[in-house]
Amino acid sequence: MKIFRVPTEDEIKSGLCTDAYFVRTEEVLKGLDDKTEVTMELMTKKFPDKNYCFGVFAGVYEVAELLEGLPVDVDSIEEGDFFYPEEPVLNITGRYTDFVRYETSILGFICSYSGIASKSIRVRIASKNKTVLSFGTRRQHPFLAPTIEYATYIAGFNGVSNVVGAKYIGKEAVGTMPHALILVLGDNRKAFKKFDEIVDSKIPRICLIDTSGSPITELEDALEVLGDRLDGVRIDSGDLKTIGKEIKWLLNIKNRNDVEIFFSGGLDEYSIVELNDIGDGFGVGTKIADADVIDFALKIIEVNGKPKAKYGNYPGKKTILRNDKFEDIVTLYGNSKEGYRNLLKPLIRNGKIVRKFEDVDEIRNRVLSDIDGLPEYLRSIVGEIKYPVKLLPNLV
Q: For the chain, what is the domain count?
């Protein structure tokens, strides 16, 4: 018997992580020797927060590995691409019986990854290029640690705290000390001193200063114990804005503007907007690790090459055209327009992966470049916007 209730890679790859009604559907269609070919497209009709200006697409590489070897063709936008509601970010063409049982896992990969990445990029934008670290894996099942850390990193976070999550993206985990170290040693000054003496010197000397008493008093202790070696202080509780102002004041008085102020504890993009004029960096945990998923759905839009869809969906295979202002046109597949590029690109052809997988830094750099290229209204953290998307089946 397994110790932990987590599926193996083989169980996922074989389609066991599916819903029973897909198995029933497969059973009926195979019993009829049905060879109907369909095209399905993946899209969301809305974001989990009305203030989202766009989402970040993630998880496509797992989908590629999942479907590799099946007789299907898949197109998708790139990992890390921005998207809006009502856009077909991925499509699959093949006999329905060949991939019906994989819908659950396809949605699971994309909805989860994209939800974390989309929340993370809002935090990245709110921070205005200050340091942002992922602290949230303790709020989720350990099985999800690599997913969380990957999604936060490609969305622009500077570092991640989970050891195995960092391993999966080829990075070193970040972090200094918890309250527990100070409580176990019984004295914050002793904890600061022993940390400095024992921990590798390449690790920043950032002291947690809100354990037992006044953060101002503990700041004084950190300055006295570490002197010029003190790189920063972290505050995790209380009225962060008020405490941060007091700390900044004291550091100015002591001519220690080199000491950085880090905030953590229940942060999200909205609280970071409020703290950004004081803080030099932010550790963001629960609100990222527990980010709402993007509510994607995978719907049939063609049957045997002819447009056909459930009521409420637009039939016909489509693509996304985008200009340099991040303005999109959703149009029928095969259409093009001068000044616009096609976002949907081949991923799988007859079961073979035909796209090169980028490493995490390539994806992250492209995401950060796209942030820099966004028009100002798409950087908004608060305030509903009108999405720059037109649905035009024919470009004439």
A: 2
